Amino acid sequence: MKIGIDARLYSQTGVGVYINNLLYYFDQVQQENDTFFIYLLKRDFRKINFKNKNLVKIEADYLWHSLSEQVDFLNLLYHNNLDLMHFTYFSYPIFYKKRFVITLHDLTPLLFKTGRTSTKNKLLYQFKYLVFKTVLKSAVSRSSAIITPSETVKRQIVNYYGNEYGKKTFPVYEGVNNQLFRAKEDQELKKKFSKPFFIYVGNFYPHKNVEKLIKSFSKIKEEVQLILLGPNDYFQSKIVQLINQLYMENKIVFYCNPTYAELTFFYKNSLALIHPSMSEGFGLPLIEAAYFNCPIIASDIPIFQELLGDTYLSFNPLSEDDMVDKINYFLQCPLKFDYKAILKKYSFKKMTEKTLEIYSACLNN
Question: Does the N terminus or the C terminus of the chain have fewer Cβ atoms within 10 A?
Fold first, then answer.
């Protein structure tokens, strides 16, 4: 059988971690009767190599959300005559009529429409939003199977689109990035970060709720820092403005685009991870923090409750006062959680195995 895997977002944050780990563990699996066509952008095609002869690289230099994706990528897929295609992101050629599986990581843009997640003008944002809704509806309706990273996202799909889609939606948990497993802690950072600190790990989109975290942290009187670990982009620049307005430059600092060695240091040495998000499909930083035995203070949203149960200190993400109270409580009574049982549930290796089972079911149906 010929199975395609869309890996065009390999180098992106979030979805890229999912793709990277899916391919890493695919490379270790011997599938005698299957050939996997791995579709990569030109820049990734040159730097990625597989040991497994069943994984064949295909250059597909067509960006997501583009006309070339809808026309040229579509033609390439038809030319390869696949038995099954796996689109690892919601954006896909909507006129592809053959059998496919799609991974929907979350419904945040659909459920949290604010317009603040775009740098474009309002009319262009509205047009992009309508295109997003159309593509997503097509993916949900026409796919042979939908993979989600959690039960929470499956419920969102069923609640929004209807019960009939529940039968073909399969929650498959993710895990700890294989590159973090293999990273060695950057000890040099101990010289730079000598004060006690909390960390936030992720991007700075509005639904991440980092602005409220910053306002809350500005009210903490203890001599502790908040280190924000994430990309250097437009949304980060908006956060910088807020920090400057609150005169918090020394208390709240950025560390942009950390390496895995640096990230390992922060997880191992922070007082706790603070994650104030209002919507997530999974929560990779929480599972990574648990792996390093780093305490977690986070929103009481359904996905975090699904992932962690009662093994974290929760707060209402809409309430600055509650956030302040929980941080102060942690500073007065530092908490430790036992994450052993939690970590057994989450694994990219298990995710890859379950993904192969879904492929098999689709091909045999």
Answer: C
